[in-house]
């Protein structure tokens, strides 16, 4: 009897899933294709929509239970011209000499890489399992997701006080963020704190 | 998922006393994650700073995001105005 009930449950779930996928398929087909993409020059101004993504990604992101950011009180920001700034990227960037992120790890690789401040931006490599974003622009110019050259210019002009001697990189597609929250992010945050970082600019892709 | 990952790290950094601001190309995801300070930018996935080899635009995006750092009425969510 138990086996019979389990089979019935399985069928029910299957039908529900099929229905959900069907609804999203119908919805995404009824929309016009994403416009404004003009070759490798990059797109015109339009914010990304979930409907730009594959059907699978759309369905996943609609059903996914997001975790909310938590903090207890706003950090007090120094004036920018006195502040030490660090970049935090989730584009899966790493140096050629560093171990790439594990794209096969279930739930997403929660590890991070330190990127030294004196690196050549265009040397960075990408190990990111998400197919939800185009690499085209980033291949042409890594500053599109890791604008270290722009920050260097702002320091030279005296607009920004200085840069941290190292920056942070994660691969953002972490669907099970338990270890990120309990271990790797607090560890990295403590590192930035020890470095005397005042301001962090965080950039997803 | 990048937007959730950024938001979660951002909350932890803010609590260590580091003032944070992030960019977002996905308002839908960011509204669910609610990071402390966010600049919503009108660009597609994979183009958070706007365009490759366009230093002027990239610089404007960065400076506009830094403009949110003094905000303490969190979460602060603003739209990029220069687009």
Order of strands across the widest beta sheet of chain B?
Answer: 1-2-3
Task: Note the run of SSEs of chain B as H and E.
Answer: HEHEHE
Principal-axes shape call of chain A: globular
Structural class of chain A: alpha/beta
- Count of helical segments of chain A? 5
Head-to-tail CA distance between termini of chain A: 50 Å
Work out the radius of gyration of chain B. Answer: 12 Å
Q: Tell me the number of helical segments of chain B per DSSP (H or I, 4 or more residues long).
A: 3
Q: Sheet bearing the most strands of chain A, described?
A: 5 strands, mixed
Number of domains of chain B: 1
Taking all residues together, what is the mean pLDDT of chain A?
Answer: 85
Work out the strand percent of chain B. 15-25%
Q: Main sheet of chain B, how many strands, which sense, barrel?
A: 3 strands, parallel
Principal-axis shape of chain B: globular
* Through-space gap between termini of chain B: 25 Å
Descriptive account of the structure:
The complex is a heterodimer of chains A (205) and B (83). Chain A is α/β, with parallel strands linked by helices and 205 residues long. Chain A has one domain. Chain A contains five helices and seven strands. Chain A has helices at residues 2-30, 55-63, 136-140, 148-156, 178-194; strands at 84-89, 93-94, 112-116, 125-126, 162-163, 166-170, 199-203. In chain A, strands 1, 3, 5, 6 and 7 form a five-stranded mixed β-sheet that branches. Chain A has a two-stranded antiparallel ribbon with strand order 2-4. The longest helix of chain A is centred in the N-terminal third of the chain and has 29 residues, at 2-30. The model of chain A is unreliable at 28-43 (pLDDT under 50). Chain B is of the alpha/beta class. Chain B has one domain. Chain B is built from three helices and three strands, in the order αβαβαβ. Chain B has helices at 2-15, 27-33, 55-66, and strands spanning 19-24, 37-40, 76-79. Chain B has a three-stranded parallel β-sheet, sandwiched between helices. In chain B, helix 1 runs parallel beside helix 2 (27-33). The N and C termini of chain B lie far apart (25 Å). At the A-B interface, helix 3, helix 4, helix 5 and strand 7 of A face helix 1, strand 1, helix 2 and helix 3 of B.
């Amino acid at each position: 009897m138990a086996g019979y009930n389990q089979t019935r449950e399985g069928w029910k779930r299957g039908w529900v899933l099929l229905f959900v996928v069907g609804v999203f398929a119908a919805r995404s087909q009824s929309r016009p294709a994403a416009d404004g993409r003009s070759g490798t020059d990059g797109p015109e101004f339009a914010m990304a929509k979930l409907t730009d993504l594959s059907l699978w990604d759309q369905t996943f992101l609609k059903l996914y239970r997001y975790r909310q950011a938590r903090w207890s009180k706003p950090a007090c920001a120094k004036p920018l011209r006195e502040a030490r700034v660090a970049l935090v990227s989730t584009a899966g960037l790493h140096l050629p000499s560093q171990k790439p992120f594990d794209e096969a790890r279930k739930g997403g690789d929660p590890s991070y890489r330190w990127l030294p401040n004196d690196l050549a931006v265009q040397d960075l490599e990408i190990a990111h399992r998400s197919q939800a974003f185009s690499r085209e622009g980033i291949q042409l110019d890594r500053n599109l997701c890791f604008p270290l050259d722009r920050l260097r210019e702002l320091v030279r002009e005296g607009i920004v006080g200085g840069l941290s001697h190292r920056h942070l990189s994660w691969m953002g597609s972490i669907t099970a963020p338990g270890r990120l929250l309990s271990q790797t992010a607090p560890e990295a945050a403590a590192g930035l704190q020890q470095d005397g970082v005042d301001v962090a600019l965080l950039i997803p892709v | 998922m990048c937007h959730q990952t950024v938001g979660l790290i951002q909350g932890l950094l803010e609590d260590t006393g580091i003032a944070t601001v992030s960019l977002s190309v996905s308002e839908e995801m960011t509204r669910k994650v609610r990071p402390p300070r966010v600049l919503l930018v009108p660009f597609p996935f994979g183009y958070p700073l706007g365009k490759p080899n366009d230093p002027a635009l990239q610089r404007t995006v960065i400076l506009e995001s830094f403009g949110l750092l003094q905000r303490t009425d969190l979460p602060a969510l603003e739209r990029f105005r220069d687009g």
